[in-house]
Amino acid sequence: MSLVDKILKGERAAIAKAITLVESSRENDKQESKELISKLILNPGHSVRVGFSGSPGVGKSTFIESFGSYLVKKSFKLGILAIDPSSQLTGGSILGDKTRMSEISKNENTFIRSTPSRGSLGGVSFGTREAAIILDSAGYDFIFIETVGVGQSEIMAANLVDIFSLIVGPGSGDELQGIKKGITEYADIFIVNKADGDLKLQASKTAADYQSSLHYLSASETSASKKVMLVSSLEQTGMDDVTTTIQEIISINKKSGIFEKRRSDQLAYWIKEEVRNHIQQKVETGIRENDQFEEMINSVLTGKETMHNTIDLILKKLMK
Length: 320
Ligand SMILES: Nc1nc2c(ncn2[C@@H]2O[C@H](COP(=O)(O)OP(=O)(O)O)[C@@H](O)[C@H]2O)c(=O)[nH]1
Ligand SMILES: [Mg+2]
Prior knowledge:
Strand content: 5-15%
Helix content: 55-70%
Strand order of the largest sheet: 3-2-4-1-5-6-7
Number of domains: 2
Bound molecules: guanosine-5'-diphosphate, magnesium ion
Radius of gyration: 22 Å
CATH architecture of the largest domain: 3-Layer(aba) Sandwich
Largest sheet: 7 strands, parallel
Distance between the termini: 45 Å
């Protein structure tokens, strides 16, 4: 049986192999990966992709495990593409997230891939998008994508999912500042986590603060109205609310055409993003491999040539 057929049958080993393939930077693998993806997109599944963003420590991984096990108990098939931020610091993979995710990783109906965030900001990349395509073809109901909420990676992650959520902790005033800037554009739902024990009261207050901030923001043409939810990942409370809200937003967006519009906007985004990526790589190789450039730069340093002329000259050479 071909790899494609095995994926369509939902075989875990085949899914794992395919994700490794799309993440690989080897030329041979890239070719094989292109062929694989072009076949898989002809067999789309029905999955809903949900992004989880938020500052380190707010509880993204814990929430994903908790919410994930809640969904799995309700017989949903769940794929998780998580980032492993520890490897950014150490360069190696540390068990951290994997141990915590271990409970659901043993379940037949979940597939978890933890990718080091090293390399691309926040761990999201073109490969993440293709991994989601694989899981979709393999018949998963939900695909969760975890990212660290920083600038560019947040935009990339938002462009990978049907619902983008921001997880915050109790009393996160800084995040509320952010709400007025970029995040509101991208986040469909706000999940206030850690509503338990001593933090419960503060979490409720934070949720109320978000709720009142959202009053000033109307729904955009690419999203239904934004929602605030209160959960405890540790005590697994509020999960029913999150499930219903996600299902409602998806249903509203499908009816209004927003769902399809977002997916086509995202396709356009990734095409441009990948073209930009390739050009950048070519330019960098060009600069690295051309030893004339050093000389030309030197002529600016020694006052023989102006900076602007030299930039023009280098550009002309590179464009060839
Ligand atoms: N009290 C409480 N602590 C939580 C909850 N969820 C996560 N945490 C704690 O917050 C810390 C960071 O969690 P983690 O999932 O690694 O955060 P991430 O960096 O956003 O992925 C850990 O010590 C968790 O035990 C929760 O619902 N309640
Ligand atoms: Mg985490």
